[in-house]
Every structure is written in structure tokens, then in C-alpha cells.
């Protein structure tokens, strides 16, 4: 222990605890090459990278000097000998998590950290033992976990840190959670028990009551010795008849701090990263985004072959080489060069993100790396070529079928050019190429793709136009800055295309991209440009109707509460519910605020009190008014008198489209109010709006591809698939399937298709994790 200094700071990571948190908190992810589930591994690696990144950048007194990752060794341990039912209610690890354990341990090795476990003990016991040794030598410990069981270790030298919430848990936070000091947590847990670990505790005693008792009697032993003196009959009898359970529970919740470990904690010092080993592992797992971040932080691989495998090319982008085209002679020279090329990158700069309203400010073009140009046509106070001249000269190239035009989110540029009478063709889109390759692995915007594939940080839009009240329109940006920014976009797009198009071909995804993704560029462009007609007068009338309903509901709410208050304020609403009306016992959120969520209000409404129902109704009507009847009016174009949404082709993990500004895909349909809002969407005179839906297309594809004979038979016989599933899963005759059971079955059917987790399904259909499994 002599090698440990008092200035040392040990980070002990509860590896087992974090695995499950990462699995349930993060969306499912799988390795494209073989379908291996990797979501938990990805979350675990991201946590390790962030902790080590912060550690190497930290110059504060809390800077970590040592790291170790600690795991449970097996499901059963010495506690099962004390109490055979300990953790007996725990389900086996989900099928898609079990194969990830091996790779999580490999990840620790890849980050050059010690990985520690010991048969017959839990990770918490090892952490407790290490913490005792370390603090005994005068050094500090941070346990990377939010596990309540580890809070008994907190002292002035030991703290917990929750990496998911970036929250430090010290003595104050333990007091807030348990109502006692950290050294009394064991006694509170012994009384309250723990259903998740099957720790029995004393029946009928929860955390709050346990804390009151321990604060009064100081220790569990003293409480049990004096239990006969407790005035409350039921509490006294309960304690007297459950002394054995309380003491057994204490044995179960007490962490052992004398585990026979052979590891020398002094060897936990932070070691240099073996870059080749780490990058090889990240590449093997196909964690491209994390690989890019690691290379950016630690530097290029030492191994040349590995550097080439990683496809991360050192940035050779030279923004000083970009040129502004402001003379007709320069434009003609550029066009001559472009005519010799088969691929060019194109980007437009405009006055607005809305392509239906935007004015063209400039065009950038690139035909090879570092050969990028910006042609300003709509800047204020500058010498530039006339827009019509530029577009007329560019038109033959932009419409030439022998020259491929590539862009990043080229749908936007396609609409801009179409608005000026130019039909951009043929097209390719780096955003969609990336989406085809890595749909759920990373974002697909230019900034992300540039860092990920080129190791280059792009100039941000905010750097050029500023923010807040001083934000400029792009037409007000000086030409030099505009050229650097716009030409870089074209240059980056050209380079990304070289990498991504090659990968699409290598991974045999050409058909997916060419048949399913690329054609949507022109299809959706047409949809967006056409827009949909909305009855403005009807919306105004409906908005007024909602306003009148809100006023009526507010009057009823104020009458019950006895005073006026801001119903939209959770703080004020909570004070009315818990302090003034005393409808329920005080409930708080994890952050300590008064709990007023929809779920809380729905539960309170079941007690028969009118107030929660009125608040829920107020919230619903308020949202309908602000989100739909009011907002839709703001989105009606002054030019076309129609609403023009923007369809997002690369925004979801599932391949579905998304819609924004406004979102026309979440207009309510089930409620009567929702149906009233939908009436605002109308057809032109002598036309009709037709709603078409292919009945359960996903289920039909699943049945065919997986050759599920029962499903195929059901479809052929025109059976209701969700009712059939409900009948089989919930073991009820198909004639007795209720709407509620069918809804749950539908969630199960589609959840399986879209990779829902056990936890996600449990939450969606309101059942336990075990039932969902």
C-alpha cells in the first residue's frame, strides 16, 4: 500500500450494473456484418471513452489517477447460502443481451483497463473491499454507479458518480434518498427490504418508515431490542414477529469489505491506450462514430494497415484553395472544367431553411478534392454576377444526364433549382448513402459524417451567421466567409461520396439504395412542393372553440382549488394537489420536483377526484390548440395558401419517413377532437383527398420472409392478425379478445418487427419486465 499517495483518486466502475442500464436505456443496435446485438456494448464503450477522455483532460483536484472495472462472477454467490431465495425472482438475461457480455469484457481489455471479478462474490463486495483499502491509505474513491446498494459506502473520501446523468452522489444525496446518513443505509434497507433482489425486510415497512425508526433508535439492533416499547400496535407486532427476517436482510444488504482479493490496487493506475488494439476492436464492432472520436482524441493508429482498414483519412482539406466566382470569364472557365467531369458536387446557399420560401443566395460546386468554388448571386452590398446569367450558364451541366450531381440532403437543392426552372439530374445523396449503410449507428448530417469518415471538423453555420438577435441572414455574410463555408460543403460532399458509394457497392447495398432510397428524393420533392390545402377559416373557428373550452375548464379548476394559478406550471400545480387539496401523499420526481406527470394524474383520477381529470382535459385541449389549430395557421404559405411540410428521409432507425415544419404525420386521429382537426385538410374544388393504407404490410412481409405458416394462413383466410396473437399470447378464445388485449397484441407484433426491448415492451403495454419476456 506504500505506493498509494493521498493525492490519488481511484475510479471503480460497477461494470455489471452499467451493462443492464445501458441495455435498457439505449435503443437496440446490431452489427451489420452478422447481426450480433451490440447496443449494450456500444453504450458501455461510450461510457468508458467519456470517462477516460474526461480523466485525461481533467486538471481539477478530483482528477482520477487509477481505473478498474469490476464485474459479478455469476448469478449465485455466498448470499444464496444465507438465503436461498436471494435474487430468485430475477429473470435470465434477455436473449439479445447474453451474447454481449463477452464483448463487454473484451472492451475493457481494449481500453487497457483492469477487469476484475471473483467467484462467489458480487461486484459490490469487491468495490467495498477495494474502497476500504484505498481510503485506509488516505486516497479518494469514486464509484461509477448509481446503485442504491453502494450508497452505504459513501463517506468524505468515497462518492458515487452516475455517468448517464452526470450526477455526483455524496452524503447529501444519500440523505435525500434514504432519510439517514450513509452509515445507516444498511439498517434502513434491512427493514424496507428490496423486491428487486428478493430481500425480505419487514412486511409493511417502507423506506420512509424505516428511516424514521433508524433516526430514532440509531441502529437496527437497538430498534429490535426495544421493539416492545413501540406505541403503535401493528408496527410493534410486525417488528417483534419479523426480527429474523430483518437480521437476515441485514446480512444480505451488507457489502463485504474483506473479500480475499489478490489484486494490488496500486496497479490500477491509468495506462496509455494501445491505439491499434482499441481501434481494431471498435472497427470489429462497427462502432464507426466512436472510432472517429477515439482517433480524434488519441491520434492516428500506429499500424499503417489498420489505418487503411479504418477508412479514417487524415484531413487534407485546404479551405484556402477555395475560389469565389464573381466574373463571367471565371464562370466560363469553371463550366469548361465541369463539362470534362462525370461527377460534381453541388450545394446551394439560401435565405431560408424552407425551400418553398427561400431565395437563392449562392451556388457552390466541386469536381475534385480541394477544387471547390462559390458563385454568389444574392448577397447584399457586393459585386457579383446576375442570378439569371449564372443559372442559364449552369443549366446545361445541371441537367446533363452524363454528369452525376451529388449533394448532402440534395432534396433541398433539387427543390431550389426546380423553383428556378432547372431539373437537377441525375442525382446521388451522401446523406442517403450513409443512411443506407449505417441507419441506426450514427447521425447522417454533414458535420457528423465529416468527422466520422474524414476526421475533419467542418465550419459550423453559427460561426458564419452568428446567433440570437445579431444572427445574419446568409445574404448578409461577407463573400470571403461565405466562400469558405459554402465551398467546404461541396468539397466535403465530394469526398464523402467517394468513400460511401464505394462502401455501398462493397456491402452489396446498391439495390436498396437505388430502388428504395434514391427515388424518394424526387417523389418527396414533388409532394413537398405541391403541399396540402388547409381551410384557414375553419382552423380559426376551431381554435376559438378550443379557447372557449379552456376558459370553461379553467373556471372549474379554479373553483375546486379555491384560487387562480398557472395550470401549466408543474410547481404551482403540485402545490395545489399536495399542499392545498391534499389529494394524495407527496410524490416527487427523481430531481426532487413535485410529481404532476400524466401518469400521476391518471392514477389520481382513478380515486374519483374530479380535479386531476380536469387538469388532464385542460392539458389535452391546450396541446391541440397550440400544436395544431394555432401552429398550422402559421405554416400556411403566403405564396401558395397551402401547408408545405418537409419529409425527412434519414431521421429514423426503422427506415420510416419523418415529417417536420409542421409534422403532418402525428395529426390526432382516434379522438373526436383529432378528427375535427383533420377536417381542416381539404381538397381543391372538384377534387378528393383519398386515404390509402396497405393492410398490415409489415406483418405480411414478416410472414413471407420468415415463412411463418400460421401467419400466412391467417392472412389467406382474412383473419385479424392482432386478435389471433392476442388469443395465443393471453390464452383467451378469439371471440373474447377485448380491444385492450388486441392493443397489447398489436404492440407485441410491431414491437418484435422493430426490435423493441423487453423493457420497452413492458412499458408500452403496462406489464412487468418478466411478463414482457
Report on this structure.
The chain has 773 residues and is of the alpha/beta class. The protein folds into five domains: 9-253, Rossmann fold; 275-309, no CATH class; 319-530, Ribonuclease H-like superfamily/Ribonuclease H (Nucleotidyltransferase, domain 5), CATH 3.30.420; 534-682, Taq DNA Polymerase, Chain T, domain 4; 697-772, no CATH class. It is built from 34 helices and 17 strands. It has a six-stranded mixed sheet with strand order 3-2-1-4-5-6. Strands 7-10-9-8-11-12 form a six-stranded mixed sheet, with helices on both faces. α2 runs parallel beside α4 (101-110), α15 (328-338) runs parallel beside α16 (387-398) and α17 crosses α23. The relative contact order is 0.06. Mean pLDDT is 88; it is low at 309-314.
Q: Quick one: overall form? A: globular
Number of domains: 5
Please, what is the average pLDDT? 88
Structural class: alpha/beta
**Count of individual helical segments:** 34
Amino acid at each position: 500500500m506504500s505506493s498509494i499517495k493521498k493525492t490519488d483518486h481511484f475510479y471503480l466502475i460497477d461494470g455489471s450494473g452499467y451493462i443492464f442500464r445501458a441495455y435498457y436505456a439505449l435503443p437496440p443496435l446490431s452489427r451489420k456484418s452478422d447481426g450480433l446485438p451490440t447496443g449494450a456494448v456500444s453504450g458501455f464503450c461510450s461510457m468508458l471513452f467519456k470517462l477516460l477522455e474526461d480523466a485525461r483532460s481533467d486538471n481539477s483536484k478530483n482528477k482520477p489517477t487509477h481505473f478498474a472495472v469490476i464485474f459479478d462472477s455469476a448469478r449465485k454467490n455466498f448470499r444464496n447460502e444465507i438465503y436461498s431465495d436471494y435474487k430468485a425472482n430475477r429473470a435470465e438475461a434477455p436473449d439479445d443481451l447474453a451474447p454481449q457480455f463477452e464483448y463487454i469484457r473484451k472492451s475493457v481489455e481494449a481500453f487497457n483497463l483492469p477487469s476484475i471479478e471473483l467467484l462467489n462474490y458480487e461486484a459490490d463486495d469487491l468495490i467495498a473491499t477495494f474502497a476500504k483499502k484505498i481510503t485506509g491509505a488516505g486516497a479518494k474513491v469514486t464509484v461509477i454507479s448509481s446503485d442504491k446498494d453502494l450508497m452505504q459506502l459513501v463517506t468524505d473520501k468515497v462518492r458515487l458518480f452516475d455517468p448517464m446523468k452526470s450526477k455526483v452522489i455524496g452524503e447529501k444525496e444519500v440523505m435525500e434518498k434514504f432519510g439517514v446518513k450513509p452509515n445507516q443505509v444498511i439498517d434502513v434497507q434491512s427493514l424496507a427490504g428490496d423486491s428487486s433482489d428478493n430481500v425480505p425486510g419487514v412486511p409493511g415497512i417502507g423506506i420512509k418508515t424505516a428511516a424514521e425508526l433508524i433516526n430514532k433508535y440509531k441502529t437496527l439492533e437497538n430498534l429490535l431490542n426495544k421493539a416492545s416499547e413501540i406505541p403503535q400496535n401493528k408496527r410493534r407486532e410486525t417488528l417483534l414477529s419479523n426480527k429474523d427476517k430483518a437480521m437476515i436482510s441485514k446480512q444480505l444488504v451488507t457489502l463485504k469489505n474483506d473479500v480475499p482479493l489478490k489484486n494490488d490496487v496500486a496497479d490500477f493506475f491509468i495506462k496509455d491506450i494501445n491505439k491499434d488494439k482499441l481501434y481494431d476492436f471498435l472497427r470489429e464492432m462497427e462502432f464507426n462514430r466512436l472510432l472517429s472520436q477515439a482517433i480524434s482524441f488519441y491520434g492516428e493508429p500506429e499500424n499503417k494497415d489498420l489505418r487503411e482498414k479504418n477508412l479514417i483519412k487524415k484531413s487534407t482539406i485546404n479551405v484556402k484553395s477555395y475560389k469565389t466566382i464573381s466574373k463571367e470569364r471565371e464562370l466560363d472557365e469553371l463550366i469548361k472544367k465541369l463539362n470534362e467531369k462525370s461527377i460534381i458536387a453541388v450545394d446551394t446557399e439560401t435565405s431560408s431553411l424552407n425551400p418553398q420560401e427561400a431565395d437563392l443566395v449562392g451556388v457552390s460546386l466541386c469536381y475534385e478534392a480541394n477544387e471547390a468554388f462559390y458563385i454568389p448571386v444574392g448577397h447584399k452590398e457586393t459585386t457579383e454576377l446576375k442570378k439569371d446569367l449564372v443559372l442559364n450558364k449552369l443549366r446545361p451541366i445541371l441537367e446533363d444526364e452524363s454528369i452525376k450531381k451529388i449533394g448532402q440532403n440534395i432534396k433541398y437543392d433539387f427543390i431550389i433549382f426546380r423553383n428556378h426552372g432547372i431539373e437537377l439530374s441525375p442525382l446521388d445523396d451522401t446523406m442517403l448513402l450513409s443512411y443506407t449503410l449505417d441507419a441506426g449507428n450514427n447521425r447522417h448530417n454533414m458535420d457528423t459524417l465529416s468527422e466520422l469518415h474524414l476526421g475533419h471538423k467542418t465550419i459550423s453555420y453559427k460561426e458564419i451567421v452568428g446567433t440570437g438577435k445579431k444572427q445574419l441572414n446568409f445574404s448578409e455574410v461577407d463573400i470571403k466567409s461565405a466562400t469558405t463555408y459554402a465551398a467546404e460543403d461541396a468539397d466535403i460532399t465530394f469526398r464523402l461520396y467517394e468513400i460511401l458509394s464505394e462502401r455501398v457497392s462493397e456491402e452489396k447495398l446498391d439495390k436498396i439504395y437505388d430502388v428504395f432510397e434514391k427515388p424518394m428524393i424526387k417523389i418527396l420533392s414533388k409532394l413537398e412542393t405541391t403541399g396540402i390545402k388547409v381551410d384557414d377559416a375553419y382552423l380559426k373557428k376551431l381554435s376559438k372553440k378550443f379557447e372557449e373550452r379552456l376558459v370553461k375548464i379553467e373556471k372549474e379548476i379554479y373553483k375546486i382549488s379555491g384560487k387562480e394559478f398557472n395550470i401549466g406550471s408543474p410547481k404551482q400545480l403540485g402545490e395545489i394537489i399536495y399542499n392545498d387539496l391534499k389529494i394524495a401523499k407527496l410524490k416527487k420526481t427523481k430531481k426532487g420536483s413535485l410529481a404532476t406527470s400524466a401518469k400521476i394524474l391518471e392514477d389520481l383520477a382513478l380515486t374519483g377526484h374530479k380535479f386531476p381529470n380536469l387538469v388532464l382535459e385542460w392539458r389535452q385541449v391546450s396541446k391541440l390548440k397550440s400544436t395544431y389549430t394555432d401552429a398550422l395557421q402559421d405554416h400556411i404559405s403566403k405564396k401558395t395558401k397551402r401547408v408545405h411540410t418537409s419529409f425527412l428521409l434519414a431521421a429514423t432507425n426503422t427506415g420510416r419517413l419523418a415529417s417536420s415544419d409542421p409534422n403532418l404525420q402525428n395529426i390526432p386521429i382516434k379522438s373526436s377532437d383529432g378528427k375535427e382537426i383533420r377536417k381542416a385538410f381539404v381538397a381543391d374544388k372538384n377534387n378528393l383527398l383519398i386515404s390509402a393504407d396497405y393492410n398490415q404490410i409489415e406483418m405480411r412481409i414478416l410472414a413471407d420472409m420468415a415463412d411463418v405458416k400460421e401467419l400466412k394462413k391467417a392472412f389467406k383466410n382474412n383473419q385479424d392478425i392482432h386478435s389471433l396473437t392476442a388469443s395465443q399470447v393471453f390464452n383467451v378464445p378469439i371471440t373474447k379478445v377485448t380491444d385492450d388485449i388486441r392493443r397489447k397484441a398489436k404492440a407485441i407484433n410491431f414491437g418484435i418487427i422493430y426490435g423493441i426491448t423487453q423493457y420497452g415492451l413492458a412499458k408500452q403495454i403496462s406489464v412487468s419486465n418478466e411478463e414482457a419476456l
